[in-house]
């Protein structure tokens, strides 16, 4: 069965172009002209992925994304923002609202299809972690699932437990009801420990649904600390290139 994608945009031309590109790639497409209509379609069809414009009448993309994450039956559905803006602040606002990726208009077809395929594949892997038989524990490789992806998934599904990291920088993170509340490595604690672990690209992880009484040492919200960790990683990469 082909994957289902909901496209939400008030521009008929954009809807048509995205529909053609994605339909040719084998996806089943649903359309909506604004966030209010998008929520109705989402509740009825439960798509596998959502693509939404940021600027729309009645309900803009930010509010629509927030509603999907907080009130829908599929809060962890992959979500892509379309935007005419290129500045980093816009991207950060989108990620804080709950988006997984964003694409700048005009849309590059290859980039669109690559991002859609990657998000759908990632979501399929993450779903395994939410199944009942995986609720007590889950382990894997950081080359397949990054720390950011793991924490985002547990955040969206409001999980509680301890994420153990074993790599060049061993450490652990404590998650309570989806919120990242504690982190520690050999050298650092709190937000700084998160930044250190997120920078790792190799190693293994193990998540255990166990109660931890570690006192909270994370100062930022879960999304903010992840965004800052990603910013630091990008900054370091640009300096090295």
What does this structure look like?
By secondary structure, the protein is of the alpha/beta class. The protein has two domains: 4-127, Response regulator (Rossmann fold, 3-Layer(aba) Sandwich), CATH 3.40.50.2300; 133-240, no CATH class. The protein is 44% helix and 23% strand. It contains eight helices and ten strands. Strands 2-1-3-4-5 form a five-stranded parallel beta sheet, sandwiched between helices. A five-stranded antiparallel beta sheet has the order 6-10-7-8-9. α4 links the parallel β4 and β5 (101-104). α7 (190-198) packs across α8 (222-240). The termini are far apart. The model has no long low-confidence stretch (mean pLDDT 86).
CATH topology name of the largest domain, in short, is Rossmann fold
Spatial extent as radius of gyration: 18 Å
Largest sheet: 5 strands, parallel
- Regarding CATH, which class of the largest domain? Alpha Beta
What's the CATH superfamily of the largest domain, by name?
Response regulator
Structural class: alpha/beta
Distance from N terminus to C terminus (CA atoms, Å) equals 42 Å
The dominant shape is: globular
Strand share of the residues?
Answer: 15-25%
Q: Could you name the ranges where pLDDT drops below 50 across 5 or more consecutive residues?
A: none
Mean pLDDT: 86
Tell me the number of structural domains: 2
Total count of helical runs of at least 4 residues: 8
CATH structural architecture of the largest domain: 3-Layer(aba) Sandwich
The count of DSSP E runs of length 2 or more, i.e. the number of strands, is 10
Please bin the fraction of helical residues.
40-55%
Strand order of the largest sheet: 2-1-3-4-5
H-E string: EHEHEHEHEHEHEEEHEH
